[in-house]
Every structure is written in C-alpha cells, then in structure tokens.
User: Fold these one by one.
Assistant:
Number 1:
Amino acid sequence: MINFDYLRVTTPKAAVDAIVTNRNAQWIAGGTNLIDLMKKGVVEPQKLVDITNLPLKEIKKTSNKFSIGAMALNSDVADNELVQKEYPLLSLALKAGASQQLRNMATVGGNMMQRTRCPYFYNIDMPCNKRQPGSGCGALKGFNRMHAIFGASDKCIAVHPSDMCVALVTLDATVVVTGPKGERRIPFQDFHRLPGELPQKDNTLERGELITAVELPDQPFKKNVHYLKIRDRSSYAFALVSVAVAIDMQNGKMNQVRLGMGGVAHKPWRLKEAENFLTGKAPSEPVFREAAKLAMRGAKGYGHNNFKLKLGPNTIVEALIKATATS
Amino acid sequence: MSHQKTHEENHPDKGRRDFIKQSSLLTALALAPPALMKAADPGWEAEAPRLLEQPLNIEINGISRKLSVEPRVTLLDLLREQLALTGTKKGCDHGQCGACTVHVDGKRVLSCLSLAVMQEGKKVTTIEGVGTPDNLHPMQAAFIKHDGFQCGYCTPGQVMSGIACIREGHADSDDDIREYMSGNICRCGAYPNIVKAIAEVKKGGKSL
C-alpha cells in the first residue's frame, strides 16, 4: 500500500473542512472496503481523515422518526433491540451481509459508500469506466455473472453490493448529510444513482458532503417481513439476487406492501409496480407470480447473468411466500 | 535488433524508456568514485522520504505500549512484523478468510483491514493473549479434543472467532455457530469438528 497522511477528527465540521481543502483526501470509517481498494491500487488517497471518533453512533427514536447515526456499527444496528422490534427487515438484511468480524468494523455510512465488487473494477489491469473513465467496460462482454439486469448502461453494468441498502430503500429511509453548504436530506431512493454516462459516480453526494445519519419513518412493518438472499454459498458471499419484503397485513389482505431487490442494479432496486399490484390483494402464489412478472419488466441479461432473469422472479415469489407465512 | 527498433517506433513506451535511462544512470553511479557521485547528484534522494510516523498508544494482551507507526501499517502487520506476535496469521490479507481475526475492545475484527494508527487507546487481544501451551484456553483445549484443525493455519483466527461467537450469544445451535463462524475459512475443511468444539465449550457454560 502506498503511504499517506493521517488525520483524526472529532467534529463533523472538521471532517468536512479536511476534505474540502484537499482534493486528494478521503474519509475512512470502518475501512473494510477502502483498505482493500488501497491494497489493490484501485484508489490511492494522499490523506486519510479518520471519522470513526465523530459523535454519530447513536440509535434513537424520537416522536415520529427513528434515527441511526452514520458511525453506528453494522453489528450494533443489527443487534439493537429497538431496530429488531421496529424495523426487523433492516436487522435481517444487515445480518445477511458480510461476516460478524466485518459487521463489527463496518459503519452504516460506510456500508452506503462501499464500491461495487465488479472484478473489472478491482483489477487495475482491466478496463473499467468506473475506475478509469473512458477505458471501457470489461464486464459488458466479459465475465458478467454477478452483474446488473436493471438500469445498466453500455458504460457500466456493475451492481451495488450492499444488503443493508436494499432494506433501507425498501423502508423509505432518508439520508441526512452535512457539507460545505450546510445540512440536507436525500430520500434513500435518490442517494445511489444509475451508471448512465458517469459510472464513476456511485451516488448523488457532492464533494465534501458527509453522511451523518439515516432516518426511518414510523411504519407498520413489524411482522410480515423477509430478506431472502441467494448466493453461491449459504453465508458470507455477495448476493446473486436478494429480495426484501415488508407487508402490513389487515384482515387477510395486503394493506401495504414494500418490495426491494439487491444484486440486480447499480443501486438498491425498488419494485413499485409490483407493490401497487399486490396492495389490497389476498396473498397467494399466483398473485405473487404475477407481481414478479411485473417486477421483471425491462430486465436485460448480458450473457453469464441471464440466469438472473429466472432467478429474480423466483426469488421474489419465494420471499413473498415466506413473508406472508407468518400470520 | 532492427525488429525491436521498429516495435519501439510503433509503440513508444515512455515508461520503459525512462526505466532504461534511469537504470543505466544508477549503474553508472554505482561504478563511479564517490567524488564524482556528488557532482552527478541525480536530484532524487537515495532513500524515499518516510512520511511522518504517528504515535500510537495501544494495549496488547494486557500490556500498554507506546509505539510509532506509519499510517499505512495494518494492525496485522504491526502485530507480526513489529511486535513479533506471529500467532495472528496473514491468510488472504483482503478480509476474505478470517485468519487474522483478533479482538479489539472485546469485539472480533479483521486485523488485515484495520489500520494500526486507528486503534489509538484501544485494547487488543490476540491468540497469544488467550492461553499458553501450559495453560490452554478452554476453546483451544476443545479444538485439540475435537480435532478442529489439520494444517492449523486458520486455527488462531478460528479460536478468536469461536470465543467471540459464544460471548456474543451466537452459539445457541449448530446452525447458529455455522452462520456466525462463516467469516473464518478452513481450507482443510475441519468445519464439522470446529462446530463440535465451539458447541462443547458453549455447553460447558464457563464464562469466557
């Protein structure tokens, strides 16, 4: 690893200032992705600004919303009693990601900022528009088994690797950020972006904007939730396809439905058409199958990942069956 | 020779040319008498300048240490290369195998993806801190009893993870143990015996 300068900060303002005044500086939190990328030479910051000591670890409930500090550890959020009670889907998704060692290091903000695990992005001898704009996409006609089936462009077909983010987009979370121009709130749906012509940009943050918290609105999704992650081994692997389901059942009907998908796009993917179709209906496999068909509209395979076109709808149906089985 | 020249004309390779120029210069310098060397100062320092080392106060296996480290040094390299605590193993060095698992402030983490300088004021426990050959930790004894290893390379990480697994309350069933030990890979495939060892220590009910 190339050497770099190191600075420890204790206030969000100092963190922002340190980044704004040095173009080659970068924040580090858990480091589980960044250190790996630095060892591989994918990113080479001249200065790391350690933000793990910022007072942003609190998980708290106020009158009408729930707030999780950006520096809260993935394991602490997953095991938090309030989270398990109020937002069980988030806890399930977190536990489906990485290993306990990594969850003990990774933060909520860092999880959102992690880069794709596309092998062409990771290998500096390969073309990759995300790492080196203009160099081409190695995955487009290469080994693309793990890659996107929704919203990709001919510049990039990488997927966002997070499980936590699939739950957060499904639960209509809001991202709170602070930056040189002050604080703002970004709907989770708009936080990550599709590659389009700028695959080097993973999200809609401006330079110097620091995630301080994630907020969740009050919700009825306490019981009929499920996170189904399909992967090459039964634990500790990235998703081929994952599906997050949250349903509010009333008198045997699906009163409110939230559906999200991971491992299929450059951002955590929300399935609104399928949600609308399911809302108000009684749960049954034919209904789920129809919803899955709607969800897969516009999906496109790139060769090695064509299997996702079939695995995707099957995973949606299975996750819906599991979520509605608990009465 | 003429072939090579054509090749270079077609594909000007600046990096390689610079390298050849520099290495010829270095050879010349090595052969030159000292007086000449001063005159032919190439303008770069013989030794790359070291970025400022950072002070680091850290407690390792109960011993407080005042150290100085380059920011790029991982906790794993600090333990192995600077402190000769080679019980913690370097497997993949990319956070995929768990061989480097240690406890920091009571939580199991991967030392290969942790920067040493970020552990300021923290308490680290490595495999050297949990037991000795004469006084094995119950988890170490259980690994021996159940043959929880073959080559032994992943074992320090497995033992550190196994202890944490019980402390966290994630060892209530074999399935639970398998799930929460999934970050520790064993290429010899001693998994069934590792699960047995952890389940037995858990059943023993001793506080670890």
Note: The mean pLDDT of chain A is 97.
Number 2:
Amino acid sequence: MKQQQTPTSEARAAGLTLRGIVKHFGPTRVLDGVDLDIRPGEFLTLVGPSGCGKSTLLRIIAGLEAQSAGSVTIGGRSVDALPPSERDVAMVFQSYALYPHMSVAANIASPLELRRLSLFERLPLLRWLSPRRPRVMREIMTEVRAMAGQLQLEGLLDRRPAQLSGGQRQRVALGRAMVRRPAAFLMDEPLSNLDAKLRVHMRTELAELHARLGATFVYVTHDQIEAMTMSDRVALMDKGRILQLGTPSELYDTPADVTVARFIGSPPINLLEVEASAGGVIRMAGLALRAPGPGRYTIGIRPEALHLGRAAPGLLAARLRRAENLGAEWLLHAETEEGAPLAIRMTAAEHAAADALIGQVLHLSASRAGVHLFGPDGRRVAVEAAVEAPA
Amino acid sequence: MTAPRQRAEARAGAAFALPAFALILALLLAPLAALLALSVTDYRLGAMAVRLVGLDNYAALFADEVFQRSLRNTFLYVAFVLPGAVFGGLGVALLVHARRRSRAFYEVAYFLPVTATLVAMATVWQFMLHPSLGPVSALLRALGFGDVDLLNDPSLALGTLALIGLWQVIGFNMVLFLAGLSAIPRDLYEAAALDGARSGPDRFLRVTWPMLGPTTMFVTITSTITAFKVFDTVVVLTRGGPLGSTETLLYVLYLEGFQYFRTGYAAAMTVVLLAFLVLLSILQARVIDRKVHYA
C-alpha cells in the first residue's frame, strides 16, 4: 500500500480508541484492561511512575508491541492487524532513534523514501536503473527542505546526527515524524534526554507545534510538570490501569485517587492519616469535614492550602525544620507532632508577615479547596458538608 | 612552573614510559629489524660466515617461479575465502541471532572448528575427502560426478583447501557479527518499522548492514590476514601439491627457511609477506573507515 500524501498543510487528525487493552509479559500483567478515547487533534499525555505501563501502551498503539487482548482503533479504522507502517502514526523516541549513518536530510527523507520508492528503487547500485527515482527523490528533497525550514534545520541538512546537539537531534526526530503528515504523533519521553533548560524551552515548542499542526498527540512522560503544562487531557496510569483521565486542572483540583494526588503537584501534596469520629466527622487544621462514616482516612492538603495562624484549638501544629526561598515564594518544611512531614507554600509577602523561625511551632489552618479525603482503598471520598470548626 | 621542575617532570615521565618502550623495542621492533637485516644477507642457518648481498634476495624472489606461483596461489586462496568468510559469517550470525532457545547450541556448534586445531581436524578432512573411503567422495560419486579426488586434482586442491579454511573461519566471524548485531539499538528497527520498512531486506539495508559497518571492516581485515597466512592445511593435507597447485606464500617460506635453511632468502620473503599484509590492511581501513564510523 502506498500512501501518497499531498504536501499541503491541512490538518490531519485522527481520534484513537483503545478498548480493554491487556498486556502480559510472561506472568507479569503490564496492562490491565485499559479503555481510552483520544479525541482528534487532542494533546493527550500518559503520565505515571516508571513501570506503570504507559510506554507499553504507546508501543501497542504504534504496533511495535502486540496486545494480549483488546483492540486499537485509529481514525475509525481497526489497526490490530496492521504493521506499524500502515497505522498512519509517527513516533518520536526517547533516544530519537536517528539513523547514525545518514545525514539529517536522509533521516528526514527516510519515511518518504520507504513509502514512495519500491525496494528495487532503493537497492544499492540497482536503484540507479529506475527511471522514476530521480523525479521522486527531487520531490522528496523539496519536502525535506521545507520541513527543515519549519524546524530551523536548514544549515544542518548534510550533517550526521553525531555532529548535532541534543536539541537539534530532537528537531530532526520531529522532522522525520512530521514529514509524512501522520494522523497522530506518538511521543515516548522525547524530552528526557535534554538538559533542564532546553527541556523547558522544548515544552513550549512542542505545545506550539501541536497548535500549529492540529494533529493528535499522544505523549508519554513520567514528569508531571510536562503533563500539566502541555496537555489538553492527562491520563494518569499506575500498575497497568488508568487511575484518572481529565484536564490538568481536574487532576490537580479533584484527584480521584490518593496516587493521583501524590503524583500531581510539586512539592507533593501533604498526606496525613486521620480518624473519623463515630459521626464521621474529621477535624483537621481548623476544618471539620463530614466523611461517609467512621474509620481511618487519608487526608491530603496541598502545600499552598496551608496558612500560618495564631495558636488556637483545632489548628494543626507543626515544628518548622527548614525554609526555602524560591524568590517569589517560600517553601517551609515542617514536621507534625506525630512526625509526619509537611510542606507549606506561601508568597514572599506572606512569609515576611509571618516571621516564622526555624525550630518554632507553627499553627496551621487549611483552606477547604486544597483539601482532599481518601478512603482506605485510596479512592477519593466525597465530603458531604463542611461545618466550620468551633473557634 | 619553573624550568628545573619541568625537566624533573619530563625525566619522571620518561622513566615511567621506559619499561613499556623497552618491551616494545625488544619484542616488536628488534625482531623486525633483525628480519630486515637478515633479508639483505646470504645467511644460512648454522653457517659460520655471513655476506651482505644487498637486494639480491629480493631480486631472486621476483625471478623465482615457485615464489610467483605461491603468490598467485595465495591471492587466489584469499579471493576465494574472503567473500565467503565475511558473508558466510554474517549470514550465519543473522540466522543464529534470530534464535532464542537454540542460540547457545548454534553458537557453540559453529565455534567448534575455531577451537579445534586445524592440524588435528585435518586428519578428519583427509579421511572425509579420501578418494575411495571418504564420505564426501562417495557423495560426489553418488551425485554422478564420477571419481573425484579433491586433494589430488591440481584444479581442485586449492579450492578444497579454501573450503576447509572457510569452514574454520566462519564460526569466528559469526561470533564477531553476533556481537555487532547485539549492539544495534532496538529503537532503530522500531523507527524503521514506523518509517515504512516492512520486509527483512528493508530492515537489513536501512539498519543492520550500515550499523554493522565497523564489525564488517574488522572481520574483513582479520579474515584477509588469516587467509594470507594459510599454512597448516597445506602442510598436513597437500604439501603444496599436486604440481605445486597449493603452494602458498607461507608454505614456501617455511620450506626455504626450515627445510632448505636459506634463512636470508626466507627473511626477504617474510618482508614481502608483511608488506602485503600491512598494505592491504591500510588500504581496507582507509577505504572502509570513512564509510563505517558515524560518531
């Protein structure tokens, strides 16, 4: 099958549907029934700790790995029986996977060559016998040069990958993916080999690229900041399942699971073990929350939801251990009486007003919006009504 | 830094380098110098007097029919063995690399001829190729080739030795190619699969073959040198015969040096052999090197 794609810049975006994807490696169950609908043109990030199955899921979409059960549909077409090259997706690898023996131009041209020329027309020596090869190669090189222009690689077309910087290699890998105008881009931790400064820069570039191309991006990362800053929606995975799928704000503001709460946000959410009274009431940091019933719960408080106050009954007492000046804001590290660590985030102005000294006991109140309650199974528990604590 | 201190450091540095340099001198350079010196004399092993003869030995060499024939035979042998050694080794490595559970077995099996000394294995070959008793000859008869005496037919003997040489070297090259294959990042095959490489030849041409460049260069050079130095099969199986059809460079050199004791003449021959080997290696490295190293 030849895919003759016209070099127009109209958006080609396909939706992806995953149904019941299961993957075993021997006795290990890496993916445990994943359902996911990715909208056309969406920037969807699969994020999670290493070993959660996110890369395997991406590789199953690409066709590099066969699922043990379940089905993948790309642009309304079932691709389960199709090889990677016919799934109309391009992939950017963590290592970039550029051909080291080829120039930048040849690397970018590679997908077009493989699609538009027959094996015979690519064979060493014999290829020169093909009458249509020169014309096809001219067309391909025109497209490659246009692509290089878009990615600021014009001056580097004759270089080998080894002669490029990390950021340049990254752009060549993008060029190779973009040149054949796939319906979806699959990216496997593409920024993790770059230094911190370049990574921040490339985040912006990738987000802009997505906006410009209008194509569907499926992006795998273990970095929650990348997930939060670039994505339309984020699927947070753990132990082979999607724990929560939602916009970055939804994941941050209403984490469905304690793992989600812990994973999203930096510094991470403060988690404290609490006991609800017989009536299901939990008193914590100046708040009274009504849980569905008595028993043990985990309460999560975002660092920015904690505020310093004067000593008062019902407030959370914690001894200040360390204070970090981040310029615009301060990060305080404290320890509760039970020995649980607490992070408190505040503006520089708040910090100046509070004059918190190391070793001093802080009295902390929490604002309701940054407080989440999780049951013994780790799932979010709806807090029915919050009653103000008696002063 | 002051001048005396610099001198002291230089002296210390030289002192550290001295042992290694002395060893290189004694073990590598001195024998080579002795060889060059011998090659311009008429020295015979055990002789009391030695006379400088200048380049007479070299002049004699190039007039010597036996030497010229051995040179021709050696080049023929190399030309026959080299492609088989490189592409045979690569082919076997590709097949073995794809095995999972049986890979260890094949690796050992193919490597056995490398570990077995050729002199010992030559007796097996002698039996196998025996005109009346050997299974190979029986097979050829059964296939309708009539009575073929592979080792005693002047038109076949060199080719037969080349096949035995190939039999021995393929396993070694396979191991080198296997190492090369294992070092190719899997990512590249995956990138090629997404780019549109669907068939084996596509993957081979786009990824495997170019990525094996450095290995191929190494295998080509070592195989050339091994083939150039063919000796043991000649001594054990044919003694240069029949009609000198298997006289190779090293065998003739051995005859001159250790049978006829014309040490000076043999030294000149050795110099020529060395010159060929060095020249070939440089040539191959020069030509291929530019195309195989990407970093």
Note: The two ends of chain A are 74 Å apart (CA to CA).
